[in-house]
Fold this protein.
Amino acid sequence: MQKIGLVGTGILGNAVGLHLLESGYQLTAYNRTTEKTNELKKKGAQIVRTPKEVAQNSEVVITVVKDASAVKQVSFEKDGIIHGRHKDLVVCDMSTINPLESKNISEKFFENDIVMLDTPVMGGPNVAITGDLVMMAAGNKNTFNKCKGVFDTIANKVFFLGENGTAHGVKLAMNLQITMLALALSEGITLSRAVNVDPKIFLEILNSTYFKTGMSENKGYKMIQDKFDATFTLENLEKDINTILDTSKSLELELPMTKKAKEVYGNAVKDGFGNLDYTGILAYLKKLNEKS
Ligand SMILES: NC(=O)c1ccc[n+]([C@@H]2O[C@H](COP(=O)([O-])OP(=O)(O)OC[C@H]3O[C@@H](n4cnc5c(N)ncnc54)[C@H](OP(=O)(O)O)[C@@H]3O)[C@@H](O)[C@H]2O)c1
């Protein structure tokens, strides 16, 4: 499979596309806001005006858009992917969405004679650009095997989990880790500052222990310098927290910490911090603790 299509060239989609081009694949791309396809165009991607044309030109179409409603829009509405169907077409959804929605979406594709796989990923643009994402895949196993070469280009680890919905479920469980880690790190930095300890020392101590994480070893040092350029926006993490809660409600699961986190990240978005990196939750805590 050499002809790949990309629907959605935001922060993640753009980086995945650049790596596919670098790896020798032919790429056709579409984004609702056309300017965000400029970098891919410069590197040789064919830019088209509809998801339908992406499908017509591709064997594998990867959707990387904001949420389930955006996936449905680019898939099924006027000029959507299904209108460009042909017998070799496979659709892979890399967006982070509700697993129950994903099941419905895959069924609707199936009714239109198209196989859809769930292919959510962990890792941001910095690792997507070198093909070092971690992918969770689900859906038809034979189709998965046919596409495995493409997945191995995009990710350095690929986990096949089972039927449609399962990969998105585990992806949400991963984003729950991101949610809590960013909060714990931000509250730790805030507390250290309040007792007049340089947060760099706090990070050095944390990173000398069993409780260190990739986040504390890397992003932590940017956070204490108020550097919050987004690799994954706070607004998109809040969207995922809401998705986790919707999913837990359908599954009749109680996730008390996620409920609390929704309140904190939700207020941060309302307060105008949504375009920052998700670690910008530290900047929100700073504002919350400003003494008037
Ligand atoms: N960034 C990461 O590190 C990361 C990692 C793993 C998973 N993800 C997931 O991947 C997806 C994309 O993330 P991102 O970071 O690339 O976000 P982003 O930069 O905010 O990009 C969002 C993309 O979705 C498109 N979009 C939104 N609503 C749409 C609609 N109704 N119809 C068509 N297109 C629509 C946007 O188009 P416009 O440009 O026109 O707005 C843009 O291409 C999200 O589900 C996110 O949770 C992100």
Remarks:
- The chain has a mean pLDDT of 97.
